[in-house]
Amino acid sequence: MIGIVIVSHSKQLALGVRELAAQMVHGQVPIAVAAGIEDPENPLGTDPIQVYEAIASVFSDDGVLVLMDLGSALLSAEMAIEFLSEAQQQKVYLCEAPLVEGAIAAVVAAAAGRNIHQVMAEACGALLAKATQLGVVSNPLSVVSSNTPTTNGESPTQEIRLIVSNRLGLHARPAAQFVATAARFQSQILVQNLTRNTELVRGDSINQVTTLGVRQGHELVITATGSDADEALAALQALFANNFGEDNVALNSPPAFHHKVTPATHGELLGIAASGGIAIAPIVHYQPTHISIREYHVDDPEAEWQRVQAAIHSARQEIQAVFSQASIQIGDAEAAIFDAQLLFLEDPVLSEAAKERILEHHLNAEAAWQAVVDEVATSYHTLEDSYLQERVDDVVDVGQRVLRLLAGNAPAKVHLSEPAILVATDLTPSDTAGLDPTKVLGICTTSGSATSHSAIIARTLGIPAVLGVDAQVLHLADGTLMALDGESGKAWVEPESHILDLLAAKQSAWQTAQQQARATAHQPAITRDGRQVSVFANIGSISDVQVAVASGAEGVGLLRTEFLYLERTSAPTEEEQLEVYQAIAQVLDNRPLIIRTLDVGGDKPLPYLIVGLREANPFLGSRGIRFCLDNLDLFKTQLRAILRASVGHQIKIMLPMIATVTEVRAAKVILGEVQAELNQAGIPFDAAMKVGIMVEVPSAVAIADQLAAEVDFFSIGTNDLSQYIMACDRTNPRVANLVDALHPAVLRMVQQTIQAANAAGISVGLCGELAADTLATPILLGLGLDELSVNPQSIAGVKQAIARFYIVECEAIVASALQQDSAVHVRELISTSVTPPA
């Protein structure tokens, strides 16, 4: 059997190529790697001796094919051959083929029994096939040839045609799901919009798929070429059949009044009505930091490419942090905008184009990255579809984030000392998601639209917004009084008294309507047959608790304390934490407050806390209670603050990521030590304070009966529980669609947990995002949960949903749901079993 050797400066790259190539032929072909050097400070490089050993390990009289990077990799390979005997040298071939495509083509040919010359020819021809498919153009968004590519004859091309039915077509989130699904398969996925007569594009490129301009009613043809083509097309067809999980009723759609256009009177500025409500306040200008880019020639392109990769890695961590915070602020559905941003960031077309500019043209990282982002943005601007044109905001948002990291600039922040109306040219989705509605009373920009992601976020946050006004507002001095009406799309600079009176009256009427809506939300959530279910709030700040109480929360089921540790260089002190816990408890006015102890690690790293060995899989590493038990000073400080805040309040402690009884007992011992210290110091605390755990690890479900004997309550975290049960990282867009809390496997685990809690006589709640999904409400009621904890904006809807059901009908739905074989079928069951409200 012919042997293959992969020589690269990067060990990770070489191992990845070997793994990919090996999967193509199920390990039939011997593949050796010679990559990187043993230098922790600078691991990039090649070693001739390592190459020689790799060749020797796979040597065969049939021949050895060596594929390599440019530069020293080629030199190392040439030197390595000199160590071989003359007879062996005749059987080793250095190949100029591209590393990834060449390796795959070579192993497939070798596995088919071809000779060394045929294998080498296949490897060298790999790039030609790819170039034909891509049309051989420099634009990173260039489409492939309209001819169906010819690959291995053993893998024929399969094809399906679909009509797009979801309301906004393949906008950011459905496109992200499409790409994530396509990327799960080995087959090459191509897609064409027949309605717009586009050419075929790559199904694994978020930008190419999005720029097809796919809208509701468009017909697509999707082809798959590869061994798993049938499975790939079936998975994609299921996405379309399920409308990508979307209702065809718009969520947070632009207000109907957006289409009203009334002429401006004296002193008025006309704009676009993007988010309803009245705001009257002084203005404050927001100007993001300008990043100046200079293009220059670099002598070490590999180092520049490493800089881009490092910046992309950091940007990914930042976006994941924004997503976590946005989930608290605006809810998981709208926070999914940032899931789409992660896919833009990981788009292979983007990174490959940047890498080409750097390695082939020796451009500096900043200039290469900016050029690629500009080309992608231009391709969006040229689309006929105005809705899809607006998705350029996400491309620019991601692009600027990476560019800022490359330039070493600190992130721009909106800091307001007093409530104000924010005036800007535009706001990115990241900018908007970070706004504090108690300080930013309104938004006025000179660009933007009612369907932009920034506008959607503003509506979700309840911030009135008027966009697209005349640029003269940019010249107003900070502190100038402005009034804006997000319903009519008008703004007034230094409004006259009669305008202020009219707006004040309108604002008062709007607030009255809001109060009436909130009044319903302040009623208990009781099913039609009299079963009361507590509805609590998940919060992550003092401002959140104020919104929660105003929204009808009966308490806080989850206080995420991580916000205290963010954007700092050191952990918060005991006094700082005490002040915050007391303030939140004060707002709750003796309603229950469940404080989750610090839960970092996984998707929530804190650089100044996560020290030591870097974890290959942080989701399975030191996170939650594990981290706290390894950092006792940090843990004890937080426990002291919580205990001290408990006096006169209904505060409970909740421990995250519990996997064993030993962990619970260890935490209780530490809690007892802290209580003893406080007693000795004469510091009061609630000695009867209840202690509970998060059930979010499968082992905790399996021993729920044992854990129930140790604690006072359970809270089921379906976000993590789902990903651990399904063995899928919910932040990995390639597999995140498998993480569905309505999958029968997850529901059975939830049922088992509730049964253990009931048997032990302890309460059990659920604080994952499933609790806010009103489609799931009958399932959760039928399972017998005592409480649901949701994002504040979901409280009213969840209470209304609870009031529509009888427990007996919910129990019947659960019995059937637990017997289904997929989350899709569970959803179908609920949809057909539940009678819509009158």
Question: Which terms would index this structure?
Answer:
838 residues, alpha/beta, eight-stranded mixed beta sheet, eight-stranded parallel barrel, globular
Brief account:
The protein is 44% helix and 14% strand. With 838 residues, it is α/β, with parallel strands linked by helices. The longest helix has 30 residues, at 301-330.
Mean pLDDT: 82
* Uncertain segments: 128-153, 248-264
The chain-level structural class is: alpha/beta
* SS field, number of helical segments: 32
So what's the overall shape? globular
Can you count the beta strands?
A: 25
Strand order of the largest sheet: 9-16-15-11-12-13-14-10
- Compute the separation of the termini in Å: 71 Å
Residue share in β-strands: 5-15%
Rg, nearest Å: 29 Å
Percent helix among the residues?
40-55%
Largest sheet: 8 strands, mixed
Question: How are the SSEs placed, and which strands pair?
Answer:
Layout: E1 3-8, H1 11-24, E2 31-35, H2 48-57, E3 64-68, H3 72-82, H4 86-89, E4 92-95, H5 99-111, H6 116-134, E5 157-163, H7 172-182, E6 188-193, E7 201-202, H8 206-210, E8 219-225, H9 229-241, E9 268-270, E10 272-275, E11 278-285, H10 301-330, H11 332-335, H12 337-345, H13 348-361, H14 365-381, H15 386-389, H16 392-407, E12 420-424, H17 429-433, E13 440-445, H18 453-461, E14 465-467, E15 481-485, E16 490-493, H19 497-521, E17 525-526, E18 532-539, H20 542-550, E19 556-560, H21 574-588, E20 593-596, H22 625-630, H23 632-645, E21 651-655, H24 661-680, E22 691-695, H25 698-702, H26 704-708, E23 713-716, H27 718-725, H28 744-760, E24 763-766, H29 777-783, E25 787-790, H30 795-802, H31 807-817, H32 823-833
Parallel strand pairs: 1-2, 1-3, 3-4, 11-12, 12-13, 13-14, 18-19, 18-25, 19-20, 20-21, 21-22, 22-23, 23-24, 24-25
Antiparallel strand pairs: 5-8, 6-7, 6-8, 9-16, 10-14, 11-15, 15-16, 17-18
Helix pairs in contact: 1-5, 2-3, 5-6, 7-9, 7-12, 10-12, 10-13, 10-16, 12-16, 13-14, 14-16, 19-30, 20-21, 21-23, 23-24, 29-31
